[in-house]
Amino acid sequence: MKLNVLPRQNLDPDTARWYMEIARQVNALSEGSIAGAYTARTAAPSSGTFAKGDFIRNSAPAEAGSGGSKYVVTGWICTVAGTPGTWLACRSLTGN
After folding, report:
1. How many independent structural domains does the chain possess?
2. 6, β-bridge pairs
3. Which domain holds residue 24?
4. E strand or H helix at 71
5. Which of 36, 55, 75, 80 has its C-alpha lying 20 to 30 A from 88's C-alpha?
């Protein structure tokens, strides 16, 4: 189910724009689009404060590793809270 990006009531232009931006982001997230994730990065965080369990999506996934054990880093998960916390890569095997 997608959110309607057009407000049904007469709203002032700023509120209507705010509503449309939120609806587009929710729709993108529900469809798995990286564009919906504001926290997507190309590497694990090196600054900022994070809680255990926070997840950062990889905005530039690429196949890595050697033949027979290739993988893609889909993101990073914070395993110890802190600034910036301790991060582990979340890898998905590609089967190549």
Report:
1. 2
2. none
3. 1-38
4. strand 71-80
5. 36
- Identify the DSSP state of 87: E
> Can you give the pLDDT of all 96 residues of the chain as single tens digits?
788 888 777 788 888 888 888 888 888 778 777 666 677 899 999 999 999 999 999 999 999 999 889 999 999 999 999 999 999 999 999 988
Question: Global pTM?
Answer: 0.68
- Same-domain status, 48 and 79: yes
DSSP 8-state secondary structure symbol assigned to residue 53: T
34 lies in the same domain as 48: no
Judging by DSSP bridges, how do beta strands 86-93 and 71-80 pair with one another? Answer: antiparallel
Q: Tell me the C-alpha distance between 63 and 3, whole Å.
A: 34
